[in-house]
Design goal:
Strand order of the largest sheet: 3-2-1-5-8
Radius of gyration: 27 Å
Protein name: cytochrome-c oxidase
CATH architecture of the largest domain: Sandwich
CATH superfamily of the largest domain: Cupredoxins -  blue copper proteins
Largest sheet: 5 strands, mixed
Structural class: alpha+beta
Number of helices: 5
InterPro entries: CcO_II (IPR045187), CcO_II-like_C (IPR002429), Copper_CuA (IPR001505), Cupredoxin (IPR008972), Cyt_c_oxidase_su2 (IPR014222), Cyt_c_oxidase_su2_TM_dom (IPR011759), Cyt_c_oxidase_su2_TM_sf (IPR036257)
GO molecular function: copper ion binding; cytochrome-c oxidase activity; oxidoreductase activity
Order of helices and strands: HHEEEEEEEEEEHHH
Oligomer: single chain
Helix content: 25-40%
Distance between the termini: 52 Å
Function: Subunits I and II form the functional core of the enzyme complex. Electrons originating in cytochrome c are transferred via heme a and Cu(A) to the binuclear center formed by heme a3 and Cu(B).
Main location: membrane
Number of domains: 2
Strand content: 15-25%
Length: about 250
Amino acid sequence: MYDLWIASTIAALAVGIFVWGLIFWCVIRYRKRGEELPVQTRFNMPMEFLYTIAPILVVAVLFYYTAIVQTNVDKVGKNPDVVVEVVAFKWNWQFNYRDGIGVDANTVASTTGTTEIIPVLVLPTDRTIRFEETSRDVIHSFWVPQMLFKRDVFPGKARNVFEVTNLQTEGAWVGRCAELCGTYHSMMNFELRAVTPEKYDRFVAAKRDGMTTQAALESIGEAPYATTTHPFDTKRNEQNFNKTSAAGIGN
């Protein structure tokens, strides 16, 4: 998708420079030099053919490469290395590590975010990772900007499913909800933590043994809490509530 966007931008700039050149050339070449009316050209078949066929060719080329890229992006395999169920809800995330594909699979470990704790999604590098998304309430959107990819999360039985293979380096990246979903939409964050496959296996094993996500992260030498974002302030403390209530009564 990144390469497609770059190529499309270059093509758009090339077309733009060509059109701007024609405009300025016409402005200079055919500027008014007197009161005599210039020759009026009608039914110029070569010109009409050019400006009809050229856009069609441009759209056809873009459609062709878009269809190829979209097909590759949506392609899923039969045996992914890791399966994660993404459960979105107002206004947080739950990540379930599954032992198979589909709704009949079992959850072997789980991480759920709260107002006080940002959920950390731990994933291995250099592995095929399958995401199966569902929502408990409204439409949300799973988005990690550094992955250059996002996918909407819908309520109901239908699930959005996609796979990624581009986690090639270890690190931590902020994840967000990219679909307006209510009051605290802008604060509905999580963290994606990419670790080595060996660390990932140890993390899941620790979770299976009953450790909290924070303890499991510490057991593999990782920071226990999110490092790319922080819990959101709901502003529901008593002082603010009283001020809001008093303002409402006064009005």
